[in-house]
Every structure is written in structure tokens, then in C-alpha cells.
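Quick one:
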Amino acid sequence: MPPETFLFAAPGTVAAALVAALFGLLIGSFLNVVVYRLPVMRQREFDNYIAHEAGKELPHQDRFNLMVPRSRCPHCGHQIGALENIPVVSWLVLRGKCSQCKAPISARYPVVEAVTGALSAAVVWHFGSGWLGLGGLVFTYLLIAMTLIDYDHKELPDELTLPLVWLGLLINLNGTIVPLRDAVIGAVAGYLALWSVYWAYKLLTDKEGMGYGDFKLLAALGAWMGWTMLPTIVILSSVVGAVIGIGLILFRGRARDNPIPFGPYLAGAGMIALFYGIPLTRYAQGYLQA
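Output:
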């Protein structure tokens, strides 16, 4: 498929969009688990590695992954049942409180579920339910998880960024979004672009301006949408970051020297580029040539 056409794929039906929304609600519930547990799993693995190298007893020997143990209330240990885990609905029925100890349950859980459902419907409505639509769903889910993890922990796990790179290259094997050549160049250029900025900033200030996860995320966006979309993504992420950063300083009193993770802005720019990247790029090119 030529690069100009992927934003204008055959739209999905209302029924397909509704099914995608329901599926997205379920995925959103799972993403809440991923966002909480994946950083804990990484830390536990690191702790065990350090202990092993030191010849000490491993501090974490119990099973802890995305499936085990069952979700529990962090306050009283009450195991969350199936009826208490229905996306959005259960939180509303429980009025945002644990059914046993009445401790508050963060509103972020239903918000993530609702946003994931809405974006799922938008992707399928815009791109249809073929390979492009299914790829768009995976793309969206990984970006949501990375956004929240980076916001919480200021890290972008390889377990999410690297699969996004490989999936971008795979989906473009037959030019689904862009020709494979553009995808490969996009992955390389995306990584090297922020890598160069990182080292230039570090040499000038002796500080680290961003993490290696940001390089890999931009590489992934380049693998999905090609190298020609990278300038648009970088500009969009900078604009989004500036607007949100200024808003946090003005309305929430965030300190100016408090680091703000760049991953969420890259992810947001990636989503905007997925839907509107080509029109925006054409507009920018026309404006510069005017």
C-alpha cells in the first residue's frame, strides 16, 4: 500500500467499531495490570540478579507475573472477584471503593479502560478490521501501557518498546503502511535521532536529558510509519510536551526543574500521526514552501 493511502483505508462498520470498543474495555482492564505489575516484575528480577551475583538467598522466590497472583485490594487483601472486575461498570457500582474495607479505588482504572475502549473503536472505525486495523489496535495498546509506565516510573521497558519495533517492521513487510525500506530506515533514523540529541546534551551539560527507552520508542514509531513521518512526530511531541508541561507548572505547581518523562508525548504524537500524520505533513510542507 503506498504511504499516501494508509490514512484513507476503508472505514469499518458501526458494528465492528462497537465490538472493538467492548474488546478495548477488556484490554484496558488488562493494561491496568500490565502497568502495575511489569515494573514490579522487572524490579524483582533485578533484585534476584543482584542477590545471585552476591551469593545470597534470592529475595523473591514466589510466583509473580501478569497472571499470578490474583488481583487483590492493596489495603485489606480482599481477592477481586469476576463481578468486581467488569471494566468501568464495577467501579461505578462499587462507587469507587473496595467492597470489603471501603478503601478508595483510583479513578484511573476505569479511565484507562474507557479510553482504551474509545480508541479501539476509533481505530477500527477509521482503518477497518483488516490487517491495518488490527495492527493499529496493537500499536495503540502498547502505547497506552508505555505512556502510563513512563509517567509512573520514568522508564520505557524493553518488553514493550522492542516488540513494537519488530511488529512495525513485520506489518510493513508487504507495505501495509509504508514500504519496508522506509520502515527500516525509519527505525534506524528514529533511534539515532534521539541518541544524537542525548549525547549532545550530555556532553554540553553533563546531564542526561532522556532515557534510552525514548530512542527505542521513536525507532518503533519510525518502523511503523516510515522515516518521512519522523519530523512530524518529533514536532508534535515537542508541542504536546510544551503545552502539558506549562500547564502542570501553572495549574499544579510542578517545579520547573522536576523532570517530565518524554515517552507519553512521543506516544501521543504517534497516535496523532497514525490518524492525521500525512495531512499534517503535507500542510507543513505547503506552509514552508509558501
